[in-house]
Design brief:
The structure holds two protein chains of two kinds. Chain A has helices at 33-40, 96-103, 113-126, 132-138, 149-169; strands at residues 11-18, 21-28, 59-62, 65-68, 81-83. Chain A is of the alpha+beta class. In chain B, the strands form ten sheets. A seven-stranded mixed β-sheet of chain B has the order 3-7-1-14-11-12-13. The chains are: A alpha+beta, B alpha+beta.
């Protein structure tokens, strides 16, 4: 590739499932997953923060694993199922974790919120009633610069209770 | 009543579903992407900037350099809210590593980025100056040759007779405390989109200060201010980083040259060269009587302001005026000198200017208490300024709650019970208290519109950056007019729509915009009463407006809805404006006068555990308290009070920008960590003190942030006997101090 120009040769078609929908998207081999989500799939709930996988603002789920989409190449998720914050609410109803974050005002600027909510979903899948210490440990890779951590912990605890309750109902 | 209730954020739904529209998500049809070529030298003459190769690339639309600002140019090179000292792109000289030299606008961001290396720049290096004391010395290299000095701003305060004060003291203490540069680190970077036509410009920008930005952009584009429109979507964090003008002139100038809209979104590395926290060396000398009465305090502050003024003048003033603390100091002397240096410009930082001086005076309070064998709480209480007393500016301190606040935090961490240490895990408790001015004088305006559907529209230019200002203002407006909360809408700041407000900073918005809204509401209610008293026959002296209805006070029934009132009087809508202005100011020679409309008062108490084998500090618990006047929303107040503590822990324990010959050596999280859940105190609690029946919200803002560093340092001292003077309090510094102490005692 010559300086200053952009080669369109190193592109390929990527097939993947995003929030339950099949997608085909043309990506460059060196393109990050975050870039594809935001610029090509127009999913702006995944946020660009540090760009090096430390802040967690770009967290999405690949299968059921939280990943930093800013340091993952798009071509690595060929054929995979992705969940972004846009895929969490169902029929206009907020997911119980989202509702708990809302009720506890577990944010200030909320730039980090989608990342926290998605990581929490995996935490509660793995551990339906985590202790405070377990919540702290699991969410340590998501940073909230406004410092809303205590509201976040309370929201996660409450989300755990709500999700347990809804399981009993169904 | 809505004021005082824990109402969720008005935009909470879009915050949790991720759909909230930050500037970084925005696009404008036909827009180009900008990338910035930045200086690699801290101080150099620019011999050549040749962008012809980059400009000739097919998808590069334009390159902005200082050649675009010649004598016949349609653009002005220099701008700045405090001093017009900053060039849109470097001209003749570069003054810091990272200074913009050229801006490339291309069809694609990757192309723009790649084209940067094709710009040919030749430098002739000059001697850089980084240290503010060295910059202040005779014969120092000049950052701005034409100014003939490196002094950017100088504030002084003279109160009483300083030498006589020291002469009356039994003991005199002098120490120097240092705060390093740090980065505000909003997770959303600075983003600006500009669209410039022949005679107008529109910018969407992540700024805390739409009106000052409008003024600077108008200057650079040589347009009247009313032809420039600044629209501000919600911010993904600000913390001062986005206060006053930042990228906007550069992006507007590039868009004019390109003839197309341009978007610039900074990388994390660029954030570190766009704005920083002022490094400051604070030398504080205090004379006390043997009984612990402070007689005199002399403070010298040297701030490093970086290459351009940005918000340095208010920092020198705000830090300078409060440098003796919320104490009774009969003889005070402050010299606060902010210097130009060859570093990126320092600007507003959450806890503006005050964190650096509170670090000094609250650390020294404990040193003195220890030397006098006094309890640090008692020593403070003995000297804290009380209600109505005169302070070092000569103004009376009304609504003074420092004693209540420090009692509150001390009680909450059980100050009277000693911390328990075991083996190498030493525990201790520490306190801190602070005061902070709000910009005075300042002005805020607000409009209210009641439309035919009964919706009350609030127009204010306070920027929503996560502090919840929209929610607070909606609560205030609903009560002030008398309509249900769900019928109130608030408009995002847009200088073509929302009225003038100085800035969203200085913990001022709830108070200033809130009061402007109340004044507008009074006006709107008068209009409603007048309409009702006309052909509808209500007695204006005997009606009330609540819940969207107007009714006679003693009558039964629900009265008339405001919708119906407008319909019956043939009004589609009613409009009202309100304004709030504070007066004050200080004498430039003596610092005497009125520094602040009211005072932001905060206190904190920490219990820490220090591992004396590793130097690691664990904050076991922390209680923060601020004075709120009237709490508008307890949830949001708690978020602010506790968020300040978490944020403040960074610069206290580990945040420090490492400059290597002017170059940032740690411009991202791999080498510049910020507090995570693991760093947050194990127990964090807070309180907001109110005055019963208080009408006016003070806004809690940053009040609880400045005490964090000294409260923790004081706790570390009480745990281990070692005193740290230089932030951050890293394990290395604690270990070194422990070793030095051990060697001394051996």
């Amino acid at each position: 590739m010559s300086q200053g120009t952009r080669s369109k040769q190193n592109t390929q078609e990527l097939r993947l499932q995003v929030n339950g929908e099949d997608k085909r998207v043309e990506v460059e081999t060196g393109e990050t997953l975050l870039n594809v989500l935001r610029d090509k799939l127009r999913l702006f709930g995944s946020r660009h923060g540090c760009g090096i996988g430390y802040c967690g603002a770009c967290t999405i789920l690949v299968g059921n694993k939280p990943v930093s989409s800013c340091i993952m190449l798009a071509i690595q998720v060929e054929g995979k199922q992705l969940t972004t914050i846009e895929g969490l609410s169902q029929n206009g109803e907020l997911h119980p974790i989202q509702q708990a974050f809302l009720d506890h005002s577990a944010f200030q600027c909320s730039y980090c919120t989608p990342g926290f909510i998605l990581t929490t979903r995996v935490l509660l899948d793995e551990n339906p009633s985590p202790s405070r210490e377990e919540i702290r440990e699991y969410l340590v890779g998501n940073l909230c610069r406004c410092g809303s951590y205590y509201n976040i912990i309370e929201a996660v605890e409450d989300a755990a209770v709500r999700m347990q309750a809804s399981k009993h109902i169904t | 009543m809505n004021v005082g209730k824990a109402i969720p954020y008005v935009d909470a739904h879009e915050r949790v579903d991720g759909s909230i529209g930050f500037t970084i998500n925005m696009e404008v049809p036909g827009m180009l992407y900008a990338k910035v070529l930045r200086s690699s030298s801290p101080h150099a003459r620019l011999l050549k900037v040749d962008a012809s190769k980059a400009e000739s690339l097919p998808d590069v639309v334009t390159v902005l350099t200082d050649a675009d600002f010649g004598p016949d140019s349609d653009m002005e090179l220099l701008y700045g809210s405090m001093k017009g000292d900053q060039p849109v792109v470097a001209h003749d000289k570069v003054r810091y590593v990272g200074e913009p030299i050229a801006v490339i606008a291309a069809e694609d961001p990757v192309i723009a980025e790649n084209a940067l290396s094709l710009i040919d720049v030749e430098y002739e290096d000059l001697t850089p100056i980084f240290d503010p004391h060295e910059a202040d010395a005779e014969g120092a290299p000049l950052v701005h040759d034409e100014f003939g000095t490196n002094v950017c701003s100088y504030f002084r305060l003279r109160h009483g007779d300083i030498e006589a004060g020291f002469a009356k003291a039994d003991r005199v203490f002098e120490h120097c405390f240092y705060s390093p540069p740090a980065q505000q680190f909003p997770l959303e970077p600075h983003v600006t989109i500009a669209s410039v036509n022949a005679d107008s410009a529109t910018l969407w920008s992540s700024t805390q200060a739409p009106y000052p930005v409008r003024e600077s952009v108008a200057t650079v584009l040589k347009l009247p201010e009313d032809r420039v429109r600044i629209v501000v979507p919600p911010l993904g964090g600000g913390y001062g980083a986005k206060n006053f003008v930042k990228l906007e002139p550069m992006v507007a100038a590039t868009a004019r040259k390109a003839g197309r809209p341009v978007k610039l979104s900074l990388s994390r590395e660029e954030e570190f060269v766009t704005v920083t926290k002022h490094p400051a060396a604070v030398t504080i000398k205090t004379g006390v009587k043997a009984d612990g009465t402070i007689m005199a305090r002399k403070v010298d502050i040297h701030w490093s302001g970086g290459a351009y003024a940005d918000t340095t003048p208010p920092v020198a003033r705000g830090g300078g005026v409060t440098a003796t603390g919320p104490y009774r100091v009969p003889h005070a002397w402050v010299d606060s000198r902010a210097m130009y240096t060859n570093l990126p410009q320092a600007g507003s930082f959450r806890g503006l200017a005050v964190s650096q001086v509170v670090w000094a005076y609250e650390s020294q309070m404990d040193i003195i208490a220890d030397a006098l064998s006094m309890d640090p709480l008692e020593f403070r209480l003995h000297n804290l300024i009380g209600e109505g007393e005169k302070w070092v500016t000569g103004e009376r301190m009304n609504d003074s709650h420092y004693k209540d606040l420090i009692h509150e935090v001390a009680d909450k961490i059980e100050w009277d019970k000693p911390a328990r240490s075991e083996g190498h895990l030493r525990r201790g408790k520490g306190l801190g208290v602070s005061l902070k001015a709000t910009i005075t004088p300042s002005t805020a305006h607000a409009y209210l519109k009641l439309d035919h559907t009964g919706t009350l529209w609030v127009f204010a230019s306070s920027v929503e950056m996560g502090q919840g200002i929209k929610t607070a203002l909606v609560q205030i407006a609903a009560d002030a007019v008398g309509v249900p909360l769900e019928q109130v809408r608030i408009v995002d700041p847009d200088t073509s729509v929302t009225p003038y407000d100085m800035t969203t900073s200085s913990s001022r918005s709830t108070f200033s915009s809130g009061t402007a809204i109340k004044n507008a509401a009074q006006n709107l209610r008068s209009q409603l009463l007048e309409l009702a008293s006309g052909k509808l026959g209500y007695d204006p002296a005997n009606v009330e407006i609540t819940g969207g209805f107007l009714r006679s006070k003693n009558a039964s029934g629900e009265g008339i809805s405001l919708v119906e009132l407008l319909r019956r009087t043939n009004h589609n809508e009613l409009f009202a404006e309100g304004r709030f202005e504070t007066q004050g100011g200080l004498d430039p020679e003596t610092g005497q006068g009125k520094a602040s409309e009211h005072w932001h008062q905060g206190a904190g108490a920490a219990e820490v555990e220090v591992d004396t084998e590793t130097g690691k500090i664990t904050v076991l618990r922390y209680h923060a308290a601020s004075y709120a006047g009237r709490v508008v929303n307890p949830t949001n107040v708690r978020l602010q009070n506790e968020g300040n503590v978490v944020y403040g822990l960074g610069p206290t324990l580990f945040e420090e920008i490492d400059f290597d010959n002017g170059q940032v050596a740690n411009p991202n999280l791999d080498s510049y960590p910020i507090p995570s859940l693991e760093d947050a105190p194990k127990h964090l609690t807070s309180s907001a003190l109110e005055t019963p029946d208080a009408e006016t919200p003070y806004g809690v803002g940053e009040s609880t942030l400045p005490p964090v560093a000294p409260a923790i340092a004081n706790a570390v001292f009480r745990a281990t006997g070692v005193r740290i003077y230089h932030l951050p309090i890293t394990p290395e510094k604690v270990l070194r101090a422990l070793r030095a102490k051990k060697e001394q005692s051996e």
